[in-house]
Write a structure and sequence with these properties.
The protein is an all-alpha fold and about 300 residues long. It is built from eleven helices and two strands; from the N terminus they run H-H-E-E-H-H-H-H-H-H-H-H-H.
Length: about 300
Amino acid sequence: MKVKKQSPVLIQKHHLEDWVGRIYTTFCVSLLVIIIVSMIYFVASKGLATFFTNGVHVEDFLFGTKWDPNGENPLFGALPFIVGSFATSLLAALIASPLSICASLFMTEIVPSWGKRILQPVIELLAGIPSVVYGFVGLTVIVPLLRDTFPGQGIGVAAGAIVLSVMILPTITSITTDALSSLPKGLKESSYALGATRWQTISSVIIPTVLPSILTGIVLGMARAFGEALAVQMVIGNAPHIPQSLFQSASTLTSIITLNMGNTVMGSVQSNALWSMALALMVMTFIFVIIVRLLERRHRI
């Protein structure tokens, strides 16, 4: 039986397309790596100039409680903004996590036939709403509600955390839903075969199995909340001090950067201090990514 030989023209065209694809992919990846490395270098060089060029001590920057860049003795303490960022992010994760896990269980374990058909578009809609809309709704609805219910003016850590919890809800819900959907059916059937009820199976088998994926979603949600600027800025009050309660005004790293970046001269100490805050945000993002990688590795095991 004779084997039909391919035309040399077709072979050359096939190799040419293969080489074009390889060169284009390599170019895109190289460009992406160059952009990321350049951004890290640029932010790090600007942020570290505060300490190596302007002589601000790292300890005074990280643990100082006074932010007064225009005073006779300028002070660049970023601790109030670091505390504000962590407080709003952690509180937002505490509010959003139970809601997201319950929504995912409802879609995959309780009523998977129509629950996912109803809730999935709603979750996707939440992810697509611009952050300024969240901030405006928070300023119009949540702040007056908190002002009428609790002491204070309504603006503060609690208002920022509530707005952020709604914003990170889609991230945690999507990752948890994907993890629950990928569970092998035999795992649940084995639990039912041993006489366990649905809730015993959910609490003792399903949730412990997908716990690393749930934690991954929570960490990614916290990373999203930690880097959010506009919505938090509209409801948190932007006061440069450490709040004593959830209903006091505060400020975050992102809000102080966006408020002051346009009013500083490039290369000045104040501008470099803001870049140092941007560097702190970037370092926190790296830490979040490392935590997610560790959780994924544990999940693979």
